[in-house]
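As a warm-up, study this chain.
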Amino acid sequence: MKNINITVGNKTFTATLEDNDTVKALVKQLPLTVDMFELNGNEKYHNLLGNLRADKSISPDRIHKGDLMLYGNNCLVLFYQTFNTSYSYVKLGHIENTTGLTESLGSGGVKVTFSFK
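Now compare it with the structure written out below.
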């Protein structure tokens, strides 16, 4: 598994990536800086150009703070709260140390950079 940096403002978080074809497609786009938008008070999302999904979506039943997922074919989602869900995603990775993640992401839109560690 590979690690990437997820930088929000002046704070950088390390995410461990899954080993799947969707992650391989994402890694080809790195480094990537995107504007992520607020949704539901628990996640930030960005719609990427083109179809990124190469794996079957599954319902994880529970989302964990720090999960990096793909919703649909091209919606990159970074979760900053833990909650139950019935939606389906492709798991891309997870931030282990989420200290400061919620505060860094804030309550509105935010610029996030995904890059190689």
